[in-house]
Amino acid sequence: MHDVWVSRKPRHGWLAYGMAVALAALMACWPGRSSAEPLHFQTAQVLGMDEGHGFSAPPYLLEAANPQGDWRPVSLPHAVPPELLPGVDDPLRPRTVVSWYRLQVPRQQDAADALNPYYLYIPRWKTDGQLAVYASGRLVYRSSGNLLWNGSNHPLWIPLDKARSAELPDSLLLRVEHLRATGAAVSSVWLGRQDEIGWRYRMRDLLQVQLPLMVSAAFLAVGLFALFVWIRQKAASRAPDSLYLLFFAMSLASFIRSLHFYVGQFKLPLPDQWFGWLTISALFWLIATSHFLLVRLHRRPQPRLSRAVIGITALVSLVTLPLLSAVLPGASELARVIYLVLLGMGFAIAISGLRNARLAGSGEGLLLASWGVAGMLLGVHDWLLQNNLVSVEGSYLSVYVGTGLFLIFMYIMFRRYLGALEEARQANASLAQRLRAREAELNASHARLREVEHRQTLSQERQRLMQDMHDGLGSSLVSALRVVEDGQLHEAQVADVLRSCIDDLKLAIDSMEPVEADLLLLLATLRFRLGNRLKSSSIRLVWNISDVPALPWLDPRNALHILRILQEAFANILKHAQASEIGVSTSAGNGWIEVAVADNGQGFSVDEAMKGGGKGLMNQRRRAEAIGGEVLLASSSKGSVLTLRLPEKHPA
Amino acid sequence: MPPSPDGALISVMLVEDDVHFQNALIAAIARAPDIRLAALAGSRAQGLQALRGPPADVLLVDLGLPDGSGIDVIRAAHSLWPGCAVMVSTTFGDEAHVLQSIEAGASGYLLKDSAPEDMLDEIRTLHQGGSPISPMIARQILNRFRDRPAMPAPAAASASAFAQAQLCAPGLLPGPGVPEQAMLSSREMEVLQLITRGFTADEIARLLQVSSHTVQTYVRRIYSKLKVRSKAEAIYEARQQGILSA
């Protein structure tokens, strides 16, 4: 077994050390750096122990000379490559090997300082197994002996004063127990005081653990936001944009996947096998989701690729199910092989996405596909790192794939948001424009309507005046003409006819004046016009009117009807009744307003007057009907009453 | 007819282009013992010319004169003959013409189709301080005082113009409102209300328990308030529009 130890020089791949430039920049301005150089172990002696079964507890104390064996010098970082074809292990008691690393600590240089003890800083160690660290023969650190929960992605920061004192330890020993099938590795080791090497640990911890954790959480938060957007869209029964659901799926897969990198030694309440299955399958889900997101972005369906992606993802997720672990090896054991499948699928998706996004001219698709290619390259790096094919001192980089996705995701959301704002602005603008157009239309149609109404009013007015002149002024003038033509020139007669013509005209003019629904004003006008006539015939007028409700329908046309009815009533009394007194009174009630014109004359037979169909009476009835009212007649030998009943509200 | 209280004849000047109306009125005046015709004009120019002579007691003006509006004659008479009662003669007594004349300085109007004797009665009444009024005219006057009670806010005058007018002419302009004397008293309002209800001066006098002569003077006072008011409004409007400078 010892022969398979292979030592590799660190390879400074540009991908792996892109961050190192940023680190160096930060380093330069890191405060409180001591001038004293810390110890940096880049060589060690290694001792491979015989294989056992399962993880054993490391002893607390070591004899000074132990462990004994064939120590060989190696340079750090040092990796033990896995056996690619390990054969089938008993899953309950897998075969393990132990590798010891001995570091040569130089003699004490400076005085011990109890307040400023020494620390051991191990940037990276990795194994599916456990690590124990001894200083001066005492156990100062041990990880849990477990495939998953050993926190091997966390850089180690071990205070040494617990071991013995503030002085430098005599010796440093690292015990790495690991699965035969998965190999192991240890980076170079630093020993120094906090102000000398603390920043190294802090920086690596930040970049390797904290930052991915923060971004992953933020990604998940934004993913949840996208999920809410999607649910809202669905609830609003609009066709929801699958983009948002895919975003959420992606953020979730990415989050699950990233657990791997920062869950430390604290075990999640989840069986180990399920956790392994989950984190490894999540990577497939993440890549499958990316594929559908790409298709959604460039909108060029890839049915065959999609089927293949679904098929592979489903197959891998199924095959690695812990339920099948009795039959098949678990996800963690298969990880190395599975990751190769994953890389193939990922590259296929990314390259197909690149091509289609370019063809479709989708900037967002290109961006995502490019990041997919980059992510796959990071994946290759990580695969190499996992298999100890590149320097173990590097860091897993694929954890930043999520960071990139998150940024791309934010960028896409941001663009949609701006787009929506712009759309809303344009919608508003076009709405305002449509409103203006409608307003103009409405104005035009209003104007047309007004014109029509105006013309209608004019024509109605013309008809009204024509009718009125035909009935009153016209016929009076015609009869005057007859009288003059017949040569029976009774001056008084002609004057009388002309006077009544003028009265007619005056009433017609009065009817044009706005009386503002005031019936009493109309009656007052009538009295004013007819007053002289009554005075000259020496009939007493008893004006006994009381307030009545307003008549909103009292327009010029209706006003003239009322004036004419009452004018006719007065004329009849003057002509026929031989009365000495006329009483005019008003009353209101039950939705009706009544105007009564009573005289104390000789009376007449109402029936005969109706039968005879006197022209005057007929006109009165016709006019009353036209305004929704009626004319009532009552007569006795002591006098007559004409009552004009008017509705308070116009029937029409 | 009794002669006028001071025993002198009522002198009447007539500005009228209708020969028939002229003749009818001249004949009626000739028959009346208490009225004499002082002057006769057939056009606006003649009317204005005649105003330079000795003042008459009553001036009767037709609005539609061949060379212009009788309103000009009324306005000139109001300032040249302040003691003269001006009367506008009109065919229909429509408020538009009558109110315009009253604002120019007339105190009454005469319906041209009235019997000549009635016209003389109107002249006598006017001379004695009474003024005729119709329900429509009463309504119009009420509306005018109701619409703009004390401070007219003409549509043309914006608030800033209003403030400016006050700032520019402090002390010279007592305020943009109508003078106190151009407000109707509640009694005057009451009289106008009753007129719009069709009641005659005698009936109103009975209802208000005053003499019918008092009612007549109410009407005359209302007319002069309308005059003052319209003048104040005209000045105010002119100031607002910058036609007159303070």
From TrEMBL, chain A:
Catalytic activity as recorded in UniProt: ATP + protein L-histidine = ADP + protein N-phospho-L-histidine
CDD domains the UniProt entry points to: HATPase_UhpB-NarQ-NarX-like
Pfam families: HATPase_c (PF02518)
Domain Histidine kinase: 464-650
Domain of life of the native organism: Bacteria
Transmembrane spans: 211-231, 243-262, 274-295, 307-328, 334-354, 366-384, 396-414
Parts forming coiled coils: 421-452
Keywords from the UniProt entry: Coiled coil, Kinase, Membrane, Transferase, Transmembrane, Transmembrane helix, Two-component regulatory system
Name this protein carries in UniProt: histidine kinase
Organism: Polaromonas naphthalenivorans (strain CJ2)
UniProtKB/TrEMBL annotation, chain B:
Pfam families found in the cross-reference section: GerE, Response_reg
Matches recorded under Gene3D superfamilies: 3.40.50.2300
Keywords annotated in UniProt: DNA-binding, Phosphoprotein, Transcription, Transcription regulation
Positions of the Response regulatory domain: 11-127
InterPro entries assigned: CheY-like_superfamily, NreC/VraR/RcsB-like_REC, Sig_transdc_resp-reg_C-effctor, Sig_transdc_resp-reg_receiver, Tscrpt_reg_LuxR_C, WalR-like
MF terms in GO: DNA binding
Biological process, per Gene Ontology: phosphorelay signal transduction system; regulation of DNA-templated transcription
Keyword Magnesium carried by entry: no
Positions bearing 4-aspartylphosphate: D62
Protein known as: Two component transcriptional regulator, LuxR family
Native species: Polaromonas naphthalenivorans (strain CJ2)
